């Protein structure tokens, strides 16, 4: 009789379906407490008159061991530095040759030179560290003032007095589990400031939605910071009558802001590293659905798409340039944009390359 039942097409479909349902049910049961999602209404995308000319960029490091470059920094001699997923920081000399600069105890994300030519870095899995001219690692911070580990840092900038402003993307989820932030839709991140004179650290702004890049204004009266899963950049006042207050700088972005830098012309350069998850945007109003998906094992996590998109904005909040690569896929995801000489350096996270886009490209097309 059992064999006869298996010969029934409906039974042959039902049994594996029930089996899969039970497997997924077990996955969801064991991962049910990972997140506590809330209802969230995503904003609509507002286009910024993007110019599709970013693909006209030249490779800086043709052959190098760099894997998934992230942050960018340039020293006083013009050499370029970037963090690699192998845990190392590499130096690209002015002749294009790449050499190992430092071995980190984690994964360097945001990197900035201080006034003493030390390379300060947010090192995922470690904390805040700096590397001297010989590449020796010196840990500045592993914990906050309350003893909580600072292992999930992202972007940073340094004031003229040496104060380091940096972001902690989440106080709840690890770097590898940071995708759960988008499902939970709660503000688990913050911005901190480290004072090297007394070696104290304080939280200057909390309850942020996965804060990423951070950059100071030219007069250091405010800083701007990105929030990855809110697809926006905000301003936080450090001095003046508005000190302690924050406000939106740009919202309704088509992707997730990564690192932010500034140049001598009082412009901010904002890299968008991945497009919005359209499917996730559609379920943001359904916390139970989000909780079920988030409960699934790591290998079911949503795959981030690639986006090569940078914005240049002045300190008043006006967009002066909006550039993207919608023609090719050679740049991959851009995690950092840094003004350099006659152009902008780009960290191609998924292309394994550092690129340079030149300002003269604008004259060719416009």
Automatic annotation (TrEMBL):
Which ranges carry the Strictosidine synthase conserved region domain?
156-240
In its UniProt record, a GO molecular function of this protein is: hydrolase activity
Q: Tell me its family.
A: Belongs to the strictosidine synthase family.
The residue ranges crossing the membrane are: 12-32
Name of one Pfam family that matches: SSL_N
Protein name, per record: Strictosidine synthase
Q: Does the keyword Transmembrane apply?
A: yes
| The entry's keywords | Glycoprotein, Membrane, Phosphoprotein, Transmembrane, Transmembrane helix
List the source organism. Answer: Leptospira neocaledonica
